[in-house]
Amino acid sequence: MGKDSKSIDTKKEPKDSSEFKAQILSRKSWITKMAATIGAVGLGAYGIYKSQEKKMKTSVLRQSVPLGFQWPTSDPFLFCVHHEDHYPKGNGKFGPKASLAGRDMGQDFAGKDGWRMYHGDDVPGFPGHPHRGFETVTVVQRGIVDHADSLGAAGRYGDGDVQWMTAGAGVQHSEMFPLLHEDKENPMELFQIWLNLPKKDKFAPPHFTMLWNESIPVRTHEDSKGNRWKVKTVAGSLFGDKPLAPPPNSWASNPQNEVGIYILDFDAGAEFKIPGASPGLNRNVYYFRGQGLKINGTIVPGSHMFQVPSDEDLVLENGKEAGKILILEGRPIAEPVVQYGPFVMNTPEEIQTAFNDYRRTQFGGWPWESSDPVHVGKGRFAKHADGREELPS
């Protein structure tokens, strides 16, 4: 194994569990901050700071919350972050052809010059780190992600692809953003969404499923005036399309849970409807691009999340500029959530067990020469832990 300044020293026995937690969390400040945020929020139905609530005048728009880097979520979702980085030309070694001076290397989240290195030293991204007890859904709109994990699996995906990973019993993985183009800029945009697992599935075998761009349902509609709106269905059937199958142990694998992940792009002036689903779901609408949108006749601010009833239709009328929306919805798992950094369980004792298990097993170890591998010379592909290989189709 190559030198990794961010790896966890499991040979050094911590004095107690809190010291061991600090070893992990000091290396992952973004996870620490996220855990602190969720801890501050508590286990309320929507997981949103009450100090940020803005009660809407209409009964349909229950709450409005401004969007930052990390977006508020509701059960069964745990976390959503929108990465948008305007990376420069590549330097021939998959890093940026630009000075890194003035950056907090290893913790570069400031967005200097419109892009971030995150935890990467040479290549932007997130070197190897552990997870247990939930799933990551990584929706890459633009750019490339290189995946490697402690089970020996690997992949390169992007430009519309989705990787849906069940961390389950525990896995380490890295997510690096190689800058492949040396003759032009390397824009990156992705959503990473964390979906919880119920208690019965928190120790499911780690597994990932690729949803290749070529196969993901995308449907373009026209309103009565010829304005277009497009829906990309990552999960769910709200708009009439049959989604690709999620991993077998996912909360989304049971259609009765009505888990939905949709991305909508719409022209200026477009008018369309978001249909109601079953009652009792949590539905969040993230209006992350554009201004001047009306929802059920109410003008709403851009860069905001809106909580809405799951069983009511929403009539949208766009303003003078194109817009984009992310919709996350699903039936709540409604179990206790105890989260500490990269682990999400039901009790504090289970969190302690997760730390102990990781210290003892490293969730299979790390079979790669470095903590931040890049798959040189590869196109989009996936190689699974059982040796099975797949290409986009």
Sequence-ordered SSE layout with sheet pairings:
Blueprint: H1 17-25, H2 29-41, E1 63-66, E2 70-71, E3 77-87, E4 125-131, E5 134-142, E6 144-149, E7 154-158, E8 162-166, E9 171-176, E10 186-196, E11 207-211, E12 218-222, E13 228-235, E14 260-266, E15 271-274, E16 282-289, E17 294-295, E18 298-299, E19 304-308, E20 314-317, E21 323-330, E22 338-340, E23 343-345, H3 348-361, E24 381-383, E25 389-390
Antiparallel strand pairs: 1-19, 2-3, 3-10, 4-9, 5-8, 5-10, 6-7, 6-9, 7-24, 8-11, 12-13, 13-14, 14-21, 15-20, 16-19, 16-21, 17-18, 17-20, 22-23, 24-25
How would you describe this structure to a colleague?
- There is one protein chain.
- The protein is mainly β.
- Helix content is 9%, strand content 34%.
- It has three helices and 25 strands.
- The chain has helices at residues 17-25, 29-41, 348-361; strands at 63-66, 70-71, 77-87, 125-131, 134-142, 144-149, 154-158, 162-166, 171-176, 186-196, 207-211, 218-222, 228-235, 260-266, 271-274, 282-289, 294-295, 298-299, 304-308, 314-317, 323-330, 338-340, 343-345, 381-383, 389-390.
- It has a seven-stranded antiparallel β-sheet, with no helix packed on it. A six-stranded antiparallel β-sheet has the order 2-3-10-5-8-11, with no helix packed on it. Strands 4-9-6-7-24-25 form a six-stranded antiparallel β-sheet, with no helix packed on it.
- The longest helix has 14 residues, at 348-361.
- It is globular.
- The protein starts with 16 loop residues before the first helix and ends with a strand.
- 44% of the residues are buried.
